[in-house]
Amino acid sequence: MSAAIQAFHDPATGTVSYVVHDPATRQAAVIDPVLDYDAAAGRTATRSADTLLAHLRAHGLTLQWILETHAHADHLSAAPYLKRQAGGRIAIGEHIRTVQATFGRFYNQPVAEDGFDQLLRDGETLHIGHLAVTALLVPGHTPADLAYHVEDAVFVGDTLFMPDLGSARADFPGGDASQLYRSMRRLLALPPETRLFVCHDYPNGREARWQTTVAEQRAGNIHVRDGVTEAAFVAMRRARDATLGAPALILPALQVNIRAGQMPLAEDNGVSYLRIPLNALPNAGDR
Asked: How far is CA 19 from CA 54, 57, 131, 236, in A?
């Protein structure tokens, strides 16, 4: 039996989380789980994560892995909550160390205990029950992005979007448009029928979608279809990125996500505090 895949779309952040399981062993992995966060109130909630847990319970699944494609800038990770509730090990790419060093300086708060159970190398294989999962390093959006290849499916994170949206930005610290192009072409060198599952969709007048194929991307991706050169992509990406504002949750999200979703320790009044660096991110027009 092949891998069973269930997607869960979070309209508030545009994030798509996945539960992947082995029907033979009932072992499962969750990919890119979301912790609900109300920035105005400074309040977290677990509605999205509880939906994942309900799916695990309903299908009699054991959570073996919680896999992050990268340290997200647009939502907080629910990985620690899922681990407390259902077990499993939290994994991310080994180059998260580069991201931690960069943003540890940005927040003036070096990362110590980060909460990740395993840091994955390019080409490393882990298992969900009998299913082999291969980690593919696909840097460019960040230095640490991984895709997860399971049978004929690849969970691509932010490396590719749906064909009508193209690609993710490459202007975060450590991002690189040339690397992003090469990472996308690495994925698009897979067999044409390979299914690609994206981490985000931002529909404009259509229903949200998250599944495509290598063939569809090569034929129709507006940024990286066949025939688009690296030079043309880099020029487009840099010009486009220069017009983009900061993601709404980048400042609260990154300081949490580089620590596997762990919140800052409570201070002596019992309250945890997030750091918001002032005037530290460039304006779109300053790039």
From this structure: 11, 12, 13, 34
Do residues 230 and 179 touch, judged by C-beta distance below 8 A? Answer: no
What are 90's strand-pairing partners? 66
For the chain (287 residues), the mean pLDDT of every run of 10, in chain order, is 94 96 98 97 97 98 98 97 98 97 91 90 98 98 97 97 96 95 98 98 90 98 98 98 94 96 95 94 55
Cα(187)–Cα(167) distance, rounded to whole angstroms? 13
Residues 192, 15, 37: CA angle, nearest 5 degrees:
165
CATH of span 4-246: 3.60.15.10
Instruction: Name beta bridge partners: 22.
Output: 27
CA–CA distance, 149 with 155 (Å, rounded to integer): 7
Domain ranges across the chain: 4-246
Give a three-class secondary structure readout of the chain: CCCEEEEEEECCCCEEEEEEEECCCCEEEEECCEEEEECCCCEEECHHHHHHHHHHHHCCCEEEEEECCCCCCCCEECHHHHHHHHCCEEEEECCHHHHHHHHHHHCCCCCCCCCCCEEECCCCEEEECCEEEEEEECCCCCCCCEEEEECCEEEEECCCCCCCCCCCCCCCCCCCHHHHHHHHHHHHCCCCCCEEEECECCCCCCCCCCEEEHHHHHHHCCCCCCCCCHHHHHHHHHHHHCCCCCCCCHHHHHHHHCCCCCCCCCCCCCCCCCCCCCCCCCCHHHC
Query: What pTM, to 2 d.p., does this model score?
Result: 0.96
Residue 125: phi and psi, rounded to 5, are -115, 135
- Neighbouring CB atoms inside 10 A of 90's CB total 23
Cβ atoms within 10 A of the Cβ of 32, count? Answer: 26
Judge contact between 33 and 17, C-beta under 8 A: yes
